[in-house]
Amino acid sequence: MLQLTDAQKARLLELARSALEEAVRTGKVSEVAEQAEALENPCGAFVTLTSRGQLRGCIGHIEATRPLYATVRECARAAALDDPRFDPVTPAELSSLHIEISILSPLADVAPHEVEVGRHGLLISRGGRRGLLLPQVAGEWNWNREQFLQETCIKAGLPADAWQHGARIQAFTAQILKEPSTLASSSSPAA
């Protein structure tokens, strides 16, 4: 797992916030140069947006194809504008949004009994279908291992018991960065 300093974590959250605000106001995210070497490492990541404790958008990239800071900026934009479960975020909502970044470890094939609720996130796939749930989801819903496996199958559009019938189970861990709530509420209403 990528080890980040407190300053690098704060910088990553700052980069996500600036991308979110720019995307919502202009529809795009400008390129930035990043000086922190650790943030240049390719890494998978998800950005989750919540408003008053409710999910408002969540988009990520599993594979480590781009520098972490670029992945996070793109995911912040996509979570705000492209999550098909929600209407695009409006400028009026920016001050109520809270950002959470999940930095993913590489995927590893696991047997069902090896899944650790609260530690692992899951990617379950079969055929052309796949579903992913972050490690924190199982804890938020108080799921046990079997429920976590079933819900990940359902997210993939597979039968709930597909994990018992040949679906590929991959686990990962995530380093979770949460934006301080004071940062979310300090956003200016318009630029």
Could you describe the 3D structure shown?
The protein is of the alpha+beta class. The chain has 2 domains: 6-105 and 175-185, Hypothetical protein ph0010, domain 1 (Glycoprotein, Type 4 Pilin), CATH 3.30.700.20; 108-172, Hypothetical protein ph0010, domain 2 (Dna Ligase, domain 1, 2-Layer Sandwich). Helices cover 30% and strands 24% of the residues. It is built from 5 helices and 8 strands. It has helices at 6-26, 68-81, 135-140, 145-155, 181-185; strands spanning 45-51, 54-61, 97-104, 108-109, 121-126, 129-133, 168-172, 174-178. The strands form 2 sheets. The protein has a 4-stranded antiparallel beta sheet with strand order 2-1-3-8. It has a 4-stranded antiparallel beta sheet with strand order 4-7-5-6. Helix 1 packs parallel to helix 2 (68-81).
Give the topology, please.
Elements: H1 6-26, E1 45-51, E2 54-61, H2 68-81, E3 97-104, E4 108-109, E5 121-126, E6 129-133, H3 135-140, H4 145-155, E7 168-172, E8 174-178, H5 181-185
Antiparallel strand pairs: 1-2, 1-3, 3-8, 4-7, 5-6, 5-7
Helix pairs in contact: 1-2
